[in-house]
Amino acid sequence: MNNWKWLIWIAAGAVLFFYIRTDTPNHDQVSATETLIKTYDPKHNPKQSLADYLIFRAMISGEGKMTITGSSVAFGTGSSHQSNTWRGLIEVNLRNSNPALKKLKVSNHGHPGYTSVRLLEDHVTAPILKEQPDVLLIETSVINNHNKNVSLADTFKSLDSLYQLYTQALPETRIVFLSPNPCTENKFGPPLNQFGLKFTDYVNETADYIQNQGWTYFDTHGAMLYDMNAQSVTLASTLKDGIHPNDSGYKIWADVLWPFLKQKQGSLPNPL
C-alpha cells in the first residue's frame, strides 16, 4: 500500500514539474521579447519611422492603430473599392511589414466636400479622439478650401487648431499632415477663387506653413507628380474626373507614401 502512495506522489510531482516548465515563460524568451520591444522603443529611437512606431505600439498594447481624416480624396472617392484607395493599400503594406501589425486597421474618417475648417466639427473629431490612434494622418482638404473660398489665413488657423486639438488630447499620437493629390481641372469652382488664388497656391502655402511650424508633413502633390513624370504617366490618366484619383492614381499615392512611412523622421524627403 505504501508503495502505491509513493507512486502517486511521484506522478503528482512529475505533473507539477511539467506544468511549471511549460506554463512559465522561458527567461530567454522574456529577455528576447524585452530586447525586441526596446529596439522599437522611441526612447531609444528618437527619429524612428512612423511604421516602427506603429510596431512598438502594437507590441505594448496588442494592436497598432492608424487613422486618416480629410476630404473626399482621404475618403477614397473615385476608387472602385475601398481596398483600392491609398488608405486600403497602405493598410495592407503595414500588415505585411511586421507580424505585430497583422491586426492593424487604418480607420477612415474622410469627409467628402469638407474644408479644413469643417474637419474641426465635433462629429469629425469625436470618433478620432475616441479611437486614440497611434498615428493620425490629416489630409489638408485644400481642394475644398480653394473651391469654397476659405482664406489662407483661415486655412492656417484651422490647421493650427487641428494640431493643437489632437496633440493636447492625444499626446502619444504621431500626427502627420499631407497634401491632396494633383488635379487637372476644377469642376467645383473656378481656376482662380475670389482671392485670386489657384489650388496649387493653397498646396504650396500650406506646405510652407506646416513645415515652418515644425510639424511632420508629406507632400503628396509633389511626390505624385515626380513619380508620374519618372514613369511617363500622364496626370489625366490617374484621375476619374479631373480631381479624384482613380485606382491607378490611388496606387501611385500609396506607392509614394509608403517609403515616407518607413523612413526615419527628420531624414530627407523624396527628391522632387
Structural class: alpha/beta
How much helicity do the residues have? 40-55%
Number of helices: 11
- Give the radius of gyration: 24 Å
Low-confidence parts: 6-25, 27-32, 268-272
**Tell me, what's the shape?**
globular
Look at the structure and give the mean pLDDT. Answer: 88
- Helix and strand pattern: HHHEHHEHEHHEHEHH
- Kindly estimate the percentage of residues that lie in beta strands according to DSSP: 5-15%
Number of strands: 5
- Report strand order across the widest sheet: 2-1-3-4-5
State the distance separating the first and last CA atoms.
Answer: 88 Å
Which oligomeric state applies?
A: single chain
How would a crystallographer describe the biggest sheet? 5 strands, parallel
Question: What would you note in describing this structure?
Answer:
By secondary structure, this protein is of the alpha/beta class. It has eleven helices and five strands. The protein has helices at residues 2-23, 27-40, 50-61, 72-75, 86-97, 122-131, 142-147, 152-169, 199-212, 220-230, 247-262; strands at 65-70, 105-110, 135-139, 174-178, 216-218. It has a five-stranded parallel β-sheet, with helices on both faces. Helix 8 (152-169) crosses helix 9 (199-212) and helix 10 (220-230) packs across helix 11. The chain is globular and about 55 Å long. The N and C termini lie far apart (88 Å). Mean pLDDT is 88; it is low at 6-25, 27-32 and 268-272.
